[in-house]
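note to self — DONT lose this again. spent like an hour looking for the file last time. sequence + predicted structure for the chain T wanted, 295 res
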Amino acid sequence: MTDEPTRATVDWGVVRHVELADGARLLVRSTEPEPTRPVLLVLARHGGNSLEFFSVAAELADHWCVVGVDLRGSGGSDWLPDEQGYSQQQWCRDVIEVLDRTGLEPTAAVGVSLGGMLIVDLHDSGAVHLERAVVVDIAPEWPVPADHAAMAERMATNLRLLGGTYPDLHSITEAWRTVQADVWPNVDQHVIARSAAACTRETEEGWRFACDVAGYMMRAPGEPPILDRWAAWESLVDRVDTLVVRGEISELVADDAFERMIEGERASGLVARGVGHWPPLELEPTRSAVADWLS
């Protein structure tokens, strides 16, 4: 597979930048220049970006205006200065400001990992009035790692890979394959290649992951992490039809948390077999489940 066809499979949407009150510019990608269809908001994982929703855009553009916002520090959006830390609260405020400045009013949303918790926060703030939501592999509480030492060692290895510079797309794809080895043990190499193409970019120095890796992973957060969101979660599933997708071997969504998340009458659950954190949205059964839920 050559570099160009791989990248072509992940390009979607009309791109614009929205300037916030503090001067930061966030990239906003949409399948229509101006919405003529209901708006579906898509929010990526920690360090991810809107390009990673290429399969969602391709699947649903006939029925939705799919809109993705690259969070600060990711994709085509500005990074924070070195002395400032990122936070879930700031990302939520940023998305609210983007929606306010653009006049976009999403009636559905898909959030992967961090993006899923931001959907909860947006609903809790009253900034959005959703009818349907899909939350992928995140829970309202953080689980205790089964092996702290092993997780710390894996994170250190992944941090070196994610912060590196690579000579070509093939090399950075191999690095991405290593990062994802534990959580995507059986995922097809073409899926990994498309995922890598979506979350990387070519710079003058070489290929890099398209996020502020050092800022995300090594800098103290700008505001304290939100560790317990059960009250906000219950408010969401009381009012919004919500699909919860969990990777079967996910370390971030424990079995008991998953069962509690889907207790409400308006909630439903799907376990993606054989994968861990954030199952790729283009793979079955996740692809069909998300499309059916949003239709």
